Amino acid sequence: MSATMRRVHRPPETTVAAQDDKALHEEQHTSRVEMLMLKGVTRPDIIGAMLDLGTRTVQRYQDRVHARWEITGGGRTIARFRGEALARLDLIEQETWSQHAALGSKLDPSPKDEAKFLKLLLDIQGQRAALLALLWQIDFRVAD
Q1: Is the pLDDT reported for residue 101 higher than 80?
Q2: What average pLDDT does this structure show over 35-63?
């Protein structure tokens, strides 16, 4: 087992069988491939080994993920990068909220810990705004 496969957890299994709904089954595989890509695993052979899929099948799912990112990114030449970055920010934000919720289950959570999570969430929002060019538009309006 490679070092990458040991560090990255395998995404959840599909919940819909191909014979029940082929399109939904393929969408779940696409999402599983995307989860690994967002965690830095991009080689089709490694993804295939982790998900028990063939390399060509993984490449087809990766093409779908790239198309999804291009749409999310706004349809420009940097669209795929922007879409990937936005998807990563979504993943980081979900993980942060999950850890924040776990912090709330502690008997006496530290105000410093609470502030760290809120600061990280604020930074994520700022990065999302920057990727969507919202900050430039806001700065431009303020300068007028």
Answers
A1: yes
A2: 93
